[in-house]
């Protein structure tokens, strides 16, 4: 009787293969989960708390409520400059990268010989573009005695220091970002390869022009890829830091024209030790990126074609 | 803060006495340290030349203390304080930290830096020969000693004497020129300069030049919780340099921005593009070395900042050594021994040769001046300090104040120079920005 009882208890506690598999999966996930909580979620929550405090890294945070947010949004001139500089950077960079990468991908998709070489050549800048060395190179290229002025000199145009003038410095920064279009181009190229050749053949037989084919077939079928690149580039551009830091030599100048949001955030955090203001800036950035991403997703229903849509 | 300001006020007079050998100080000899073993980390800022000297001092110390190793952590000036901030926040400061009085207020807490008073009182830390006001400038707002001074630094205008003479314009008296006379001189010199050379550069965005202007006009730089000067003096400063810039006697806005680097190799004065540029006096030799290649035969000299209605206005600063609070006992002993060695060993002082400000121990000042191989730069620096120390006005830098002044002055003047703000608007914004960052 006793044995029977024990056997039935063991039976009750024996795990089914599915439960056993789940338990193993949770065990394997545990290190990642612990890392997520301790290294990501924990600091994120802590930063939200710190954004409502005055905190200088060394002494205990003091609760100040919404003071950091109010101060940034209504009184901080440099913060306003950084918002304008970032808006210019994002609004110019993202469309230009999309256009450049799509056009080059479309050309490379024409079945050129040596495609792998061209693809690699266009891709390389995206690997090295955010490096410190390229930042310094850019300073030389667009400096007073840089090769860009030598190039202009061939056409009799007098040059100047393009990185030292607040009206032209943002353009040099945008140019550097656009130069790194290779990563988007590779994604576009992969997307173009997925469009069935029969669509193009049918359109040609119907007498469609190249422009009409691009507008009516390529763009709609590529719209999910465009959408993906748009989201990715928008978020990346909001987070741009290294090149603005190098081009402005860590000042955000001339006249705050290169004071990207992240540059000012870094200066507040690690130069001024205003960790409260810096974390408030980080949260505002997160909200803005989330809002813009949300708007882009909402707009996607009007212009992104997934092929299985019911019209 | 008041006690500290009083200390700064008396600093200059005692400095003057010590420099002329009038303060009797016992001559101490650094005893060879024994019984030490292990390692201690040491961070400092500087370029290749200072790094080499520091390595030599460290090697000498290590050779006299077998079993002791100093872990070298040199950094460039730009980025040094960000590194210290991150290390301090992570309780990972090196045991021996090079410190400067302009930044000390950020770290003057027993949880970050070790208060050194007990070590001094017990005789373990030997400050023999360092004038008391200098020592007091290493105290935090709580009155505790967090930094021992190793060098006295001050900013001057480096002047390309050869370029100035080539214009044929009579030189100004470098010790007594007024701001107005200086402006007139720059305008006159500008007329005779070759293309590509400006009379003055870097001045409007130099915090040290601005401080000299403010204090020479009877105003304070910082007060409790904010700036001590008014919008009118900032507006005057911007107008002063705008008049010169528009006349072509000061760098145009583009060149001013291009000149932002602290690197000597890139500076206008070291490359023969400027007649006058503000720089630390202790960097005269390093600039001259670059100029010798860029424009052979040209000679750099030191000129002090002009005088205003209230006399001189420049500040004298202190570089020194701090010991991290988190430094473990064995490493702390090494840090104390190294600090004593750096301060009191004559060979170490001669190797370092006032590279980061005139040596703080008074008996070495005269000795270095009279050394047969003393460079012209070293001698000029010590001579200039003799004048400056009699007239300088000390500034106490609250937490974050220097960085806030530096950043805000630069962006404010750039806005003016590029026509994006009027001097009045820029002045108001600048004061608002500094005050916000000092909250």
What share of residues are in beta strands of chain B?
Answer: 5-15%
Low-confidence stretches of chain B: 1-7, 16-33
How far do the termini of chain A sit from each other? 69 Å
Structural class of chain A: mainly alpha
CATH architecture type of the largest domain in chain B = 3-Layer(aba) Sandwich
Count of individual helical segments of chain B: 17
Q: How many domains comprise the coordinates of chain A?
A: 2
Q: What's the gyration radius of chain B in Å? A: 22 Å
**Largest β-sheet summary of chain B:** 6 strands, mixed
Average pLDDT rating of chain B? 87
CATH superfamily of the largest domain in chain A: MetI-like
- Order of the strands making up the biggest sheet of chain B: 2-1-3-11-4-12
DSSP summary, beta strand count of chain B? 12
Report mean pLDDT of chain A, rounded to a whole number: 89
Strand percentage of chain A lies at under 5%
CATH level 3 topology of the largest domain in chain B: D-Maltodextrin-Binding Protein, domain 2
* Largest sheet properties of chain A: 2 strands, antiparallel
CATH superfamily of the largest domain in chain B: Periplasmic binding protein-like II
> Biggest interface and which pair forms it?
A-B, 33 and 37 residues
Question: What is the CATH topology assignment of the largest domain in chain A?
Answer: MetI-like fold
């Amino acid at each position: 009787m006793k044995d029977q009882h024990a056997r039935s208890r063991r039976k009750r506690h024996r795990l089914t293969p599915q439960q056993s598999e789940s338990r193993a999966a949770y065990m394997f996930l545990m290190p990642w989960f612990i890392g997520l909580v301790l290294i990501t979620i924990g600091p994120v929550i802590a930063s939200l708390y710190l954004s409502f405090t005055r905190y200088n890294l060394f002494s205990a945070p003091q609760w100040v409520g919404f003071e950091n947010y109010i101060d940034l949004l209504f009184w901080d001139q440099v913060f306003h400059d950084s918002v304008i500089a970032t808006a210019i950077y994002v609004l110019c960079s993202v469309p230009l990268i999309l256009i450049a990468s799509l056009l080059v991908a479309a050309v490379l998709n024409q079945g050129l010989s040596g495609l792998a070489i061209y693809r690699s050549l266009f891709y390389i800048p995206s690997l090295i573009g955010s490096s410190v060395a390229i930042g310094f190179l850019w300073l030389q290229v667009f400096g007073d005695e840089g090769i860009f002025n030598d190039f202009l000199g061939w056409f009799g145009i007098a040059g100047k220091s393009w990185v030292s003038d607040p009206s032209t410095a943002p353009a040099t920064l945008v140019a550097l970002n656009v130069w790194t279009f290779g990563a988007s181009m590779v994604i576009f190229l992969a997307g173009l390869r997925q469009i069935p050749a029969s669509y193009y053949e049918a359109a040609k037989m119907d007498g469609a022009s190249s422009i009409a084919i691009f507008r009516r077939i390529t763009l709609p079928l590529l719209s999910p890829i465009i959408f993906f690149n748009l989201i990715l580039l928008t978020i990346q551009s909001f987070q741009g830091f290294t090149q603005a830091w190098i081009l402005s030599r860590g000042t955000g100048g001339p006249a705050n024209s290169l004071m990207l949001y992240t540059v000012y955030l870094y200066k507040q955090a690690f130069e001024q030790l205003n960790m409260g203001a810096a974390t408030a800036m980080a949260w505002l950035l997160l909200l803005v990126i989330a809002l813009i991403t949300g708007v882009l997703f909402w707009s996607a229903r009007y212009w992104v074609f997934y092929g299985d849509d019911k019209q | 803060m008041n006690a500290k300001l009083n200390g700064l006020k008396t600093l200059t007079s005692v400095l003057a006495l010590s420099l002329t050998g009038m303060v009797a100080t016992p001559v101490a000899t650094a005893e060879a340290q024994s019984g030490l073993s292990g390692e201690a980390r040491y961070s400092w800022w500087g370029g290749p030349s200072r790094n080499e000297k520091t390595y030599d001092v460290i090697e000498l110390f290590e050779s006299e203390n077998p079993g002791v190793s100093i872990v070298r952590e040199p950094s460039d000036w730009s980025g040094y304080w960000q590194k210290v901030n991150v290390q301090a926040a992570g309780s990972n400061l090196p045991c021996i930290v090079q410190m400067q009085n302009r930044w000390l207020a950020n770290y003057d807490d027993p949880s970050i830096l070790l208060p050194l008073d007990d070590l001094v009182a017990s005789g373990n830390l030997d400050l023999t020969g360092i004038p008391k006001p200098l020592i007091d400038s290493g105290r935090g707002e709580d009155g505790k000693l967090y930094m021992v001074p190793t060098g006295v630094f001050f900013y001057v205008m480096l002047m390309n004497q050869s370029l100035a003479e080539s214009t044929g314009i009579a030189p100004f008296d470098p010790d007594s020129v007024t701001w107005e006379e200086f402006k007139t001189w720059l305008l006159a010199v500008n007329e005779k300069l070759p293309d590509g050379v400006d009379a003055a550069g870097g001045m409007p965005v130099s915090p040290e030049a601005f401080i000299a202007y403010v204090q020479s006009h009877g105003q304070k730089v910082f007060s409790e919780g904010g700036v001590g000067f008014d919008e009118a003096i900032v507006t005057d400063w911007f107008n002063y340099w705008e008049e010169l810039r528009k006349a072509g006697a000061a760098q145009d806005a583009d060149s001013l921005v291009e000149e932002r680097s602290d690197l000597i190799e890139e500076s206008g004065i070291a490359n023969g593009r400027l007649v006058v540029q503000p720089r630390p006096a202790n960097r005269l030799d390093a600039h001259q070395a670059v100029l010798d290649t860029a424009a052979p035969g040209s000679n750099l000299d030191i000129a002090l900042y002009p005088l205003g209605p209230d006399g001189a206005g420049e500040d004298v600063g202190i570089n020194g050594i701090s010991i991290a609070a988190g430094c473990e006992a064995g490493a702390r002993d090494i840090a104390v021994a190294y600090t004593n060695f750096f301060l009191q060993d004559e060979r170490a002082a001669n190797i370092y040769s006032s590279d980061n400000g005139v040596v703080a121990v008074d008996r070495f000042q005269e000795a270095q001046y009279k050394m047969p191989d003393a460079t012209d730069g070293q001698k000029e620096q010590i001579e200039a300090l003799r004048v400056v120390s009699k007239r300088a006005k000390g500034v106490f830098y609250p937490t974050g104040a220097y960085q806030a002044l530096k950043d805000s002055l630069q962006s404010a003047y750039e806005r003016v120079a590029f026509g994006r703000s009027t001097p009045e608007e820029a002045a108001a914004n600048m004061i608002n920005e500094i005050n916000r960052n000092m909250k």
